[in-house]
Amino acid sequence: MHRTVEDMTNPTAPTEIRPFTIDVAQADLDDLMERLARTRLPQPAPADDWDTGTPNSYLREAVEAWRAFDWRAAEARINAVPHFVTEVDGQPIHFIHVRSAHPGATPLLLAHTYPGSSVDYLDLIDLLVDPVAHGGRAEDAFDVVIPDAPGYGFSNPVTESGWTTARVARAYDELMHRLGYAEYGIHGSDNGALVARDLGLAAPEGFLGLHVLQLFSFPSGDPAEFEHLEPQDYAGLEHMQWFQSVGGYNTMNASRPQTVAVGLSDSPIALLAYSELFNSFGNGTSLVTLEQIITEVSVNWFANAAAGMSRSYLDNARAEAEPQVNAAPTGVAVFADDFQTIKVFAERDNSNIVHWSRFEQGGHFAALEMPELLAGDIRAFFASLRDA
């Protein structure tokens, strides 16, 4: 597979920022089609629904859609924005970098989800870079930097263990300063929200603040915390319990990631099935389209990213870190069908929440589902910091 205009592992200039082009070899594309044609589905569950995992009925539809999917068109769309690669802390980091034409644009790093990559944010780029074209104000424009986290997408291979979200945060800070930005902010969701909060904890020089879709704060065991809960918070607690009951991949990735990666690296339909989070585990709430899912999974298939993605969970599980309070300016956008951040718990762990929004539509992958709403909330948060 031809991925860059020069080898990502070129050791001659590790801090050099080099252009990058996604150019999947036709042999790799042919191999994918052959594997999909030979798909052997498991014996079906007694009830062909999402109760025990990704059902055969969905996978049959997905196989046919993937075989008909125009990867070259998707590849051209991804390559329509500038891509680069550099080495940070010994690790190849691939990223998208789009500068705004508006003077004084705020530098903004976008940190992606699991099991996503930088393509999570393709629909968000123009909304942020050129707000005027979308009914916004020039002063709300951003330069955007969208890395693939180590082990995800084209930030491969992972050269050593220990890539916790805190280490990723430090690498992203170095990346932003290497690009010449004296100050910047971050938006993140899922794994990216954890990276964003770790940047808040580190509070590096020039860090403006973090905007996230989730603050993963849970009950501490103190009964007094529950005295201030609102009715919607109890619904949020029920959602937490449901998520824990279906999110078994957390345990698998955090315990035997290399074993998990064997199947995901050899079988494209296994990788797609394991990406059931895009479907909100089949609960009927996800607005992510099958075409978007296939684009996401194709990127991680062609990059052979399954092992690095899975091992990131083990790296975090093995990290020994004391609980800390994030004091950086923090904004939260809670979407109706996503993890429901509970403000009482979040404020215990984050002392400077200055922006809080709720939306009645959208879920865990708001950048894919509701890019206009998300872009507007990101603009509002950083405008509030600027105007404070």
From TrEMBL:
Q: Where is the signal peptide?
A: none
Q: Which residues form the Epoxide hydrolase N-terminal domain?
A: 17-120
**Keyword field contains Hydrolase:** yes
Keyword list (alphabetical) reads: Aromatic hydrocarbons catabolism, Hydrolase
Gene3D superfamilies, alphabetized: alpha/beta hydrolase
Q: From the UniProt record, which GO molecular function terms apply? A: epoxide hydrolase activity
Which superkingdom does the taxonomy of this entry point to? Bacteria
The annotated active site, in chain numbering, is D190 (nucleophile), Y313 (proton donor), H364 (proton acceptor)
> What are its GO biological-process terms?
epoxide metabolic process
Tell me which PANTHER family the record gives.
EPOXIDE HYDROLASE (PTHR21661:SF35), EPOXIDE HYDROLASE 1-RELATED (PTHR21661)
The family note in this entry says:
Belongs to the peptidase S33 family.
* Protein's name according to its UniProt entry: Pimeloyl-ACP methyl ester carboxylesterase
